[in-house]
Write a structure and sequence with these properties.
The chain has two domains: 258 residues, Aminopeptidase (3-Layer(aba) Sandwich), CATH 3.40.630.10; 110 residues, Alpha-Beta Plaits, CATH 3.30.70. It is built from ten helices and 18 strands. Helix 2 packs across helix 4, helix 4 crosses helix 10 and helix 6 runs antiparallel to helix 7. The chain is elongated and about 80 Å long.
């Protein structure tokens, strides 16, 4: 179905409703693995729009199915509910003229709003997919240690029948069409510790951790693709006059090249083995793993990317940017399913408490989301 004048007028007529929905959603806390409040809101809202069936699966994905989704091939449109912030109280939402500010307001609440509004249109018009079924999914666990739990569950349940996946995530103009894989580890070091004066000379877990971090940062990344690494969190110690008995860190490395990811894994494991010979306890836990690209048909992937590019050109003057990234699309891409990620707003400050978006960009974002969704009908 083409996005005609009538549908465009519908979007304009409902842009105020979309802004109200965004403002409401943005205030609802949704830390990764604690998305229940947004899950319940989305489920209730979709039912109010006329959905005959709304499912919530074990991973806390909210799924609104349309058409022959139980047996036929399915196309999936998704946007994640979780944000990076740990708040369990309402998030602060502030409007300042044409700017709306809130932690997570763009990533990914604006895109979730666009997805929901497109689903509402489909439901209220009683549209049927051209082939098989369509799943509108407000999915969980995209951020941080959510470890793509929602996308994993979707692919476990529907992957064998999935034709393609479009994830609404990020800002308008960006298209993520290649998967950046990653591995994330929690490393804990324990020593005998003691009093800073009376037991001086005992090993300090913080100092041992610091030396390990220094060694990790001395590793030269391989050059097969783009590879990075980072120590994002460090914790440990008891007081200023205590030799630390315990310290821990969160460390990740990522790459858009499968072979380079394995090289980084070998470097990491070699350093851990070396530090385990230093007479201290070193324990390692894999807390997150995201796969890289699988055997995706190049022609099918290119066709999907061109479809998204064309829609962006129709509704935005933003520069097109094809790039690699770590998103919900990692899971279907690793399985060979054509998938890509794009966004429906203009803003900045993602993953900071000062995140913002331009309210006047939302109508074009709705047009983009409707355009891509309605091509399945």
């Amino acid at each position: 179905m083409e996005l005609n004048q009538e549908i465009s007028q519908y979007i304009r007529d409902h842009s105020g409703e979309a802004l109200e929905l965004l403002t409401t959603l943005a205030a609802i806390p949704a830390p990764s693995n604690q998305e229940e409040k947004r899950v319940e809101f989305c489920r209730s809202w979709l039912r109010q729009q006329g959905a005959s069936e709304v499912l919530v699966d074990p991973a806390l994905n909210v799924i609104c199915p349309v058409g022959n989704w139980k047996e036929g091939p399915v196309s999936i449109f998704m946007a994640h509910t979780d944000v990076v912030f740990p708040d369990t109280d309402p998030l602060p939402v502030v409007r300042d003229g044409n700017i709306l500010r809130a932690p997570g307001v763009g990533d990914d609440t604006a895109n979730l709003t666009a997805l929901l509004m497109a689903a509402k249109f489909v439901l209220q018009r009683g549209l049927s997919p051209r082939e098989g079924g369509v799943l509108f999914v407000a999915n969980s666990g995209e951020e941080g240690l959510g470890n793509l739990k929602g996308s994993r569950q979707l692919m476990a349940d529907y992957g064998k029948r999935t034709r393609q996946v479009i994830s609404f995530d990020g800002g308008t103009g960006g298209i993520i069409n290649r998967a950046v894989g990653s591995r994330r580890y929690r490393v804990e070091i324990r020593t005998e510790g003691g009093h800073s004066y009376g037991d001086f000379g005992n090993r300090n877990a913080i100092a041992v951790m610091a030396s390990l971090i220094d060694a990790l940062y001395a590793v030269k990344v391989p050059q097969g693709g783009r590879t990075t690494f980072n120590v994002g969190v460090i914790k440990g110690g008891t007081s200023v006059n205590t030799i630390a008995q315990q310290a821990e860190m969160l460390y990740e490395f990522r790459s858009d090249c499968r072979e380079d990811l394995e090289i980084m894994e070998r470097h990491f494991q070699a350093l851990i083995a070396a530090w385990q010979t230093k007479g201290v306890t070193v324990e390692v836990q894999l807390v997150g793993e995201r796969p890289t690209m699988g055997p995706v048909d190049p022609a099918a992937q290119q066709a999907l990317v061109e479809q998204i590019c064309a829609a962006i050109r129709r509704w935005s003057d933003q520069e097109l940017r094809l790039k690699s990234g770590s998103t919900d699309c990692n899971i279907p891409l690793s399985m060979g399913i054509p998938s890509a990620c794009t966004g429906c707003y203009i803003g900045g400050g993602a993953h900071t408490r000062e995140e913002w978006l331009r309210i006047d960009s939302l109508e074009a974002g709705l047009h983009l989301a409707f355009d891509l969704v309605l091509q399945a009908f």
